[in-house]
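Example record

One chain of 268 residues, shown exactly as stored in the release files.
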Amino acid sequence: MTRLLHLSDPHFGAADEATARAFLDCAADLAPDFTVLSGDLTMRARRAELQAAKSFVEQLPHPRFVIPGNHDIPAFNQLFDRVFRPFRRYRETFGRDLEPSLRSGAVEIVGLNSSRGIGFHLDWSKGRLSPQQLDQAAPRFGKSSPGLRVLTLHHPLLAPPDHRRDVVKPLPPLLSLLAAARVDLVLCGHFHQSRIGVIGQDATWSTIVSQAPTVCSTRLQGEPPGFHVIHHDGDSLRVVLHRFNENRFVESGSLELYRDQSGWHAGL
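Predicted structure tokens for this chain:
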């Protein structure tokens, strides 16, 4: 049995300290095998925000896997940095690699950076992947799966029914990548809403998507802070949602899934 702790969007600069502390206490008690933080560590990549986020990350259980989000890029009052060196401050704090990889035991994790400082579209918060990123992602996975292949990016693949914001683009080639690499699980965030589902372009392969809510931000989107714990055992996987209730995190629902030759499916 392998357990992954998936959290997202702490947004230091707009984080509730008591909720962040409660999460760290809960994470220590859970003692997961891996901890994955899928972006938006800060609000505007201000230095004080980055230092608060660094202190938080350093208290997460090992091994840790962290990628940036669109809020980890300076805002328009730091326009030069946003345009010409959008991830300079993030790299100075968390390391130069914006797309890390990790392979340990039964788990292999590959990160993709879906955030951009500028673009030809009006909403620069939207997630985009380049053709080069997509072409190079599959070879980053090993020739054989250790048991669970995980892709991590900040922007989501599943749009809630009541949400008008876009999912990551371009989605069709990303789905082709998931099928070609036989990725088991995608971890992402951004919407501040919990969603667990299965996605696939055709019948060849289906991948689980874990979209975690914000773990401790005050910028809520209709639900309290929370996170996911993923329990993997061979061809079975269970995603458990934990939500903040008064002064602690408690389990608040789960989804069982199983794997066959065509990928993952929700249990009956």
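Notes: Residues 128 and 169 are 5 Å apart (CA to CA).
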